[in-house]
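Problem 3 from the worked examples.
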Amino acid sequence: MQSSQTKPIFLVCGATGAQGGSVVRALMKYNKWHIRGITRDMNSEEARRLRDKGIEMMPCDMTKPEELKKAMMGVHTMYGMTNFWDPQEMNKEETIGRMMVDCAKQMGIKHFIWSWLPNVEKIAKGKYHVPHFTDKAKVGEYAMQQLPTTLVAPGFYYQNFRNMFTPKKESDGTLMYTLPQTSTLMAFDVDDIGEAVCCIANNRDEWIGKTVPLCGDCMPPQRYIDQMAEITGQKIKLTMMPREQYMKSGVEHAREIADMFGWFDEYGYFGPELSKNCCEMTKKICPSIKSWKQYLQTSKFSPK
């Protein structure tokens, strides 16, 4: 068995979060990599848990290039990402991402795997304003020009039905979801991202220069709700709200969310080309990807 000192180092951004945490868990199964995670809070419960499992954790403020470069010392492969919903990164994703790419290039990283989303601004010609997609796309385009890069495009999280769009309970006990109008949702279990990233990292030459969508199910929102009601045994309904109305709903980030759903409806989650066969493409790289129904059956999901 290789010692940790001789294994190539795999650096994971956001190791204590949803995407990065999945990548760390998947990497641990292979005994191929020395795993290094970065976090702003070394004292968080998740950071301590990862250290207890033998993961090298390093403190890093991703807005500071000197801290990024320190974390990248000796790294072979890196999973890079930014989190729009983090107040420290909101509206700074392109700046932080470009700096991350520059640091990765300077530090000689051999494979940069970037959590990417399509350029809504460019493709839709300004019709929809979804910066947390567009800014990640701009970083991806830049990374492709600077160093060996693979772009990974996470779909709409299944977990969003619990965390982002929390249903309201009506007087008769019915759970009511309200979403902006769209004809389809291309979604997946964020916990599946790790296996896909491991496949990409373990087969570097095959995936450099490519963009990989991650989608476990593609269907109208009503079908997600119907299957949720069937599996959980709860009374659940869905209201689809016109985009303009949703923008005035008072929901936090309502305008951006409404535009995002407008984009889904007109162009598909991953954009016109990648959305065509996104589920089939995903299964090639991650055969174990879960459908929505499989996720509901295995995760003990509850919308409440």
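Problem 4, a separate protein:
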Amino acid sequence: MTSQLVWERDGGDWPNRETSRFVETRRLRWHVQLTGSGPVLLLVHGTGAATHSWRDMLPPLAEHFTVIAPDLPGHGFTERPPPHRLSLPAMADALAELLDVLELSPELAVGHSAGAAILVRMCLDGRIAPAALVSLSGALLPLPGLQGHLFSPVARLLALTSLTPRLVAWSARDPAMVDRLLAGTGSRLDARGFDLYARLARDRGQIAGALGMMANWELRDLEAELAHLETPLVLVAADRDRMISPGHARRIRRLLPQAEVVRMPDLGHLAHEERPADAVAIVLDVARAKGILSAERPAAKAAAGVRAGSRARSAS
């Protein structure tokens, strides 16, 4: 089962298209953006997004790193797996399988929202061992209160209703509906960002993938194990985030006191898209503090790793 988005039709003006390729793993056909040279940096977007989320961060980061940015299963141009493969452990397993095929191991990992939870799960399971993990508005703990108890069952019900993705996609033809969705993040995007999210919101495959992911999402196990995370964790919290409040980072620090917190004032849940230069600066600061950029590693070695995935082909 594939996403409704078709690369040949919809990928013509996709951000950083020249870095895109498709990679076959045992279970999925992935859309991946690979570029740059140097230490390997893995970027993982959140629920309902795609590689476009990194559109303004990827080029400057590629000046320092070999950057891997995939569309998650059921998102963007990556194939949608069966619903049970959209759980947190299954997503982490699928992403680890992709890295195995590419023969690349990240030295630094950056995840936004649910993408940060996937990276934490991979670290806890020993699937990756980066020198640091940067969580951008990371959704690492269950939502508090009634909302947290109802969210997954409601999403599960919606995911089981095949009509729902059609209705959401149809509604998204109205720019006001997309505007309300983005306003709910607390972020203010430019016209390009608005257009890209509107395109995804009109896609039935994207909506089905996001709903399936939410329906199968369970963070209680991650919460129980978070105190055992050995990977240095940097929590980036946006002051105007209406989805993951800054208080979320404080809750995480109670479980993991060694975690660092960095604030991004006057920004919402999509802070890294509102001010990508600031987010890039945070990533570079972490890389320098952890000695990643100063490590003696020839860029050619990383570039060779990118070419090593024998089943990867450039998109055209």
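Solution to problem 4. Residues 86 and 213 are 5 Å apart (CA to CA). The two ends are 22 Å apart (CA to CA).
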